[in-house]
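sanity check this chain:
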Amino acid sequence: MKNANKTKGFTLVEIMIVVVIIGLLAAMAIPAFQKVRSASQDKTVLNNARQLSAAADQYYLENGVSTVTLGSLVGTTNYVKALNLVANETYPSAYTQGIAITISGVAMARTITYAP
């Protein structure tokens, strides 16, 4: 009876190597996920700016003015029903015809400008 007490399984060193490899793979993947999230937020904010710009243009045409407040554009009975914030961004409180829209504080780090 040779090696009757020998059990099959992994050694502690083998398990530790696997854990280290998984940790390294995770460390490489996290920045990629953050980059995708940031790009997605930027695209959503830019889409909101496009909607606000189109709403402001429509308001200018209908009312014969060249400046409009955010409150006149966003609301259940206005041009944009709801403005969904995705990264704690801040939209301008007033819009002037022909002036670029600058959204600040996107994820508290970035600024996005949309020129109609």
User: Anything to note?
Assistant: The chain has a mean pLDDT of 92.
